Amino acid sequence: MSASWVIVGVAALVGFAAWLMGRRAQRGVSHQAAQTVEQITSLIEHADCLMWEARVELVRGDWHWKITLHRSMLYRKLFGQRLIAPDTDLWAEFEVPERAEMDVLAREALSRSRSGYEQHFRVIRDGVVMWLHESVSITPTGKDLFRLVGLLTDITAQRQAELTNQASQERLHQ
User: Fold this and answer.
1) pLDDT attached to residue 19
2) Mean pLDDT of the chain
């Protein structure tokens, strides 16, 4: 066998070994990425908060939301096990006394190019009141198009403690 064929053979073998090592490294990264996704999903599912993301388009006098809710303990408290469609009005099955103010705040934040907003509001179903705190970040993605990422936390216990404290203070001052 000539030296040139040996060199070609060795080069092919080195190339194949490099390709194989690259594939193994890639699988390792893919495996690591899959483990990370699995770990984050598990954290969200067990967190007593609700993470959501939405694509929002402002149109004259209206807006269109496509929302994705990430399942968590708070998701299950609010919506049970059922899936929520992306174009669903999340709060339609609840009484939400602050709903008009919520919509004004969100629309104003979008139209004024704010980076986000925060709000507190109540959702009431079957006489049960739940107080929520929502923190939302806004990223413009085009003309009148936005990506929103929100975090809802249940602040009912804190709110009830505040109301109890306030009532106690009022009784003391009577």
Assistant:
1) 65
2) 83
State the Cα–Cα distance between residues 10 and 25, nearest whole angstrom.
22
DSSP string, 97-156: TTHHHHHHHHHHHHHTT-SEEEEEEEEEETTEEEEEEEEEEEEEEETTEEEEEEEEEE-H
Provide the 3-class DSSP secondary structure of residue 16.
Answer: helix
Q: Are 134 and 119 in contact (CB under 8 A)?
A: yes
Q: How far apart are CA 53 and CA 38, in angstroms?
A: 19
Cα separation, 12 vs 4, in Å, equals 12
Mean pLDDT, residues 74-94:
90
**Where residue 40 falls among pLDDT bands split at 50, 70, 90?**
low
Cβ(53)–Cβ(67) below 8 Å: yes
Q: What is the pLDDT of residue 3?
A: 43
- In this prediction, residue 8 carries a pLDDT of 45
CA atoms within 13 A on the CB side of 113: 5
**63: β partners:** 58
pTM, full prediction: 0.72
CB 111 within 8 A of CB 14: no
